[in-house]
Design brief:
single chain, alpha/beta, 9 helices, 40% helix, globular, binds SN-glycerol-1-phosphate
Length: 252
């Protein structure tokens, strides 16, 4: 529970944690170490690594490069069971609880469990909830499931509560990478009012203000990916981190 506890501690000291998603297909490996170091210096709390589909990137060498460049945790955000590598620190053990596809609810988990055990990775069980975001996202298409409609916070909060009752340690509200619209604040609020495990929000968050909005509505972990795939945006990493960290750590 090392990485999960690290996330809980970060949330309790800073108010919320900020993770950047690194997709091996989208970030050139020769720029990776510099970006990761820059993120660490700018207040980022850790990295998610993975993608719904990895076509060109080599995930194993990618994870190794991240680990060599930073002491921050590297958490696999798997698009498939082929994305399990011991070089990372933990893996989100995602169950797509917004869908009704048995493979994404439990089937793939059965195949992955012994591999994760052997790898020594810390599995963090996560109820993954897709929220409608304007366009069909890769995550929706790949999981073959309908997202929860944007105007149905009650469905989202009942789904999240069910995941928590099933023992999941995080709830991930996902608009999808590159989403036109991020998860609505009403949904973030309804879910966080209902649940006691941390709520992760990601997909389509393009400004520090949007990130802060999600935290003010109860999100405890914010994930951005796409935005920093454009090198011209790198100098905004600190602004995002500051916006997420609503509580400054107390220095004694
Ligand atoms: C995707 O939530 C993440 O799973 C990040 O989304 O790439 O749109 O920031 P973006």
């Amino acid at each position: 529970m090392k990485i999960y506890n690290y996330l809980l501690n970060t949330i309790s000291s800073k108010g919320a944690a900020y993770l950047i998603l690194l997709d091996p297909d989208k970030i050139e490996e020769n720029k990776l170490a510099a970006f990761v170091k820059y993120c660490e210096k700018s207040g980022v709390d850790g990295f998610l690594i993975g993608g719904s589909l990895i076509i060109n990137g080599n995930l194993e060498s990618f994870i190794n490069k991240v680990k060599n460049a930073t002491r921050l945790p590297a958490i696999i955000f798997p698009g498939s069971i082929n994305q399990i590598y011991p070089a990372a620190d933990a893996i989100l053990y995602l169950s797509v609880v917004s869908g009704r596809n048995a493979e994404d609810l439990i089937g793939k988990h059965v195949l992955a469990a012994p591999i994760i055990k052997k790898s020594g990775l810390e599995p963090i069980s996560t109820g993954y909830i897709l929220i409608e975001s304007g366009i069909t996202t890769t995550a929706q298409y790949m999981s073959g499931s309908f997202p929860i409609p944007r105007n149905k916070p009650e469905i989202a909060s009942a789904t999240a509560l069910a995941a928590e009752y099933l023992g999941m340690k995080l709830i991930y509200l996902e608009a999808g990478s590159g989403a036109e619209q991020a998860v609505p604040n009403e949904i973030v609020k309804a879910v966080s009012d209902q649940c006691s495990v941390p709520i992760v929000v990601g997909g389509g968050i393009k400004t520090p203000l949007a990130a802060r909005d999600k935290v003010e509505n109860g999100a405890k972990i914010i994930v951005t990916g796409n935005f920093f795939e454009n090198e011209n945006n790198w100098d905004l990493v600190r602004s995002f981190a500051d916006a997420v960290h609503i509580r400054k750590p107390v220095v004694v």
